[in-house]
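pinging the channel bc i need a second pair of eyes. not urgent but kinda urgent?? the chain im working w is below, pasted from the shared doc
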Amino acid sequence: MKVVPQVFYQHPRIEKVLIDGLSCVILKNVKQADLQNERYLASHALTLVLNGGLQVETPEGDLTIVQKNQIILLPRGLYMISDIIPKDNSFEAIVFFFDEEITDEFLNNFEVFTKEDTSTNLVLEYDQNLRLFTDTLLTLYRGKNQHQFTRPKLLELLHLISISKQGSEFLSKLFQLKKRAKKNIRTFMNNNFDKPLDVEDYSYLTGRSISTFRRDFKSKFGISPKKWLTERRLEKASFLLKDTNDSVTSIARQVGYENTPHFIKTFQKKFNISPKQFQIKYRKDIMI
């Protein structure tokens, strides 16, 4: 699983137009599909498809196809996302990531209101105001390193969408993000402990503040979430080391560790042996 926008910052074929922490504007142009399509969005995102298409599936099974010149609002969370690349051409999109501070600042200008939540992804049309905004933004800021304008430009984008024909739907969706429904913490954690997420991410995904998440977690599992995550991830790693020939780096990623040296250190602390030595020893025991 890839965590975005962070992974985009390291991608050679993704242009970073504006960046401020987890809020940014990036320009994506790829000719080959990424087979690893599981994503965790660490910020809310608006993805504008300029060429090709985009397939988005939520954990609940809601499937959306985004066509050229459409924009999809993707709240922070887990998704399966696939670029649809035209034959003999490339997939191109602009992605606007915006954190909750930007959302809160923007929504302070409006009275709270929500429509009935259909739970489907909101797809917006790329109207004339948004075209002008995007063209001007790229002209002024591409290659200029003017990152201090990231937040003002994202707030401007949210404003332009709010005054569009779909503005009321958009505002309703943003307000709904502030009132997330709680998910069953035991089910969610058992299904997702091997993702490269931290406690703050899990608290958000289960619809809780960090303090409430820690309290609810302790009441369900009897230990802290950090300790439980370490135990579950190392348990799964030990099974993979025994049952597969995968590399230590591959196994580290499969159980939620993006930093292989940290995984090795944590594994050795628990088992008093390195992952590689553990794998070799177990293989020898089988052969005997």
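so DSSP finds twelve helices and eleven strands in the chain. and The domain at 2-177 is CATH 2.60.120.10 (Jelly Rolls). — does that match what u expected or am i reading it wrong
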